[in-house]
Amino acid sequence: MMQKGEMQGPRGGGMMGNLNLTDEQRAKVEDLMTQQQRESIPARAQLQKLHADLKLEITADKYDAGKVKGIQSEISKLTSEMMSKHIAHQRAVRDLLTPEQRKQFDRHILAGPQGPHFRRGGMGGPMQGGPGMQGRMQHRRGF
User: What is the pLDDT of residues 14-56, one digit of tens each?
Assistant: First the structure.
């Protein structure tokens, strides 16, 4: 999913701001981004709930390995669905671009999270190539 900070909005900085979009392209990209963000809210909320449930199960006095595996499976399935939607969104944005803009867009995608114009911000997350807020928090605590 295109998260805040990854490519930022077409009016802001970041990769999208560097594409020199026309007003028509800008409006369409903004519509796509708004739609994608709205659609991702329930999935992100569910993913946060699953991560919380997983933590509770891991720290429970009575450990249930089957329940933990079930939650892990749900997280994997939801993450995969979110990635598929993110990819479809990227393709929809790319389809609006001119050949020259596509070259720049493609360079950004191929460069990955360490490439040009990448900024960590917003919620982060697995769709940005990073661990998201949960992973950053766990990393800081040594997990």
Answer: 667 788 899 999 999 999 999 999 999 999 999 999 999 999 9
Question: Tokens at residue 1, please?
Answer: 């999913």
pLDDT in tens, 129-142: 444 444 444 444 44
Report the C-alpha gap between 40 and 99 in whole angstroms: 29
Residue 9 located in a structural domain: no
Containing domain of residue 115, as a range? 14-140
CATH of the domain at 87: 1.20.120.1490
Euclidean distance between CA atoms 47 and 68, whole angstroms: 14
Write down the pTM of the prediction.
Answer: 0.67
Q: What is the DSSP string of the chain?
A: ---TTTT--SSSSHHHHTT---HHHHHHHHHHHHHHHHHHHHHHHHHHHHHHHHHHHHH-SS--HHHHHHHHHHHHHHHHHHHHHHHHHHHHHHHTS-HHHHHHHHHHHHHGGGSTT----TT--GGGTS-HHHHHHHHHTT-
CA dist., res. 123 & res. 135, Å (int): 11
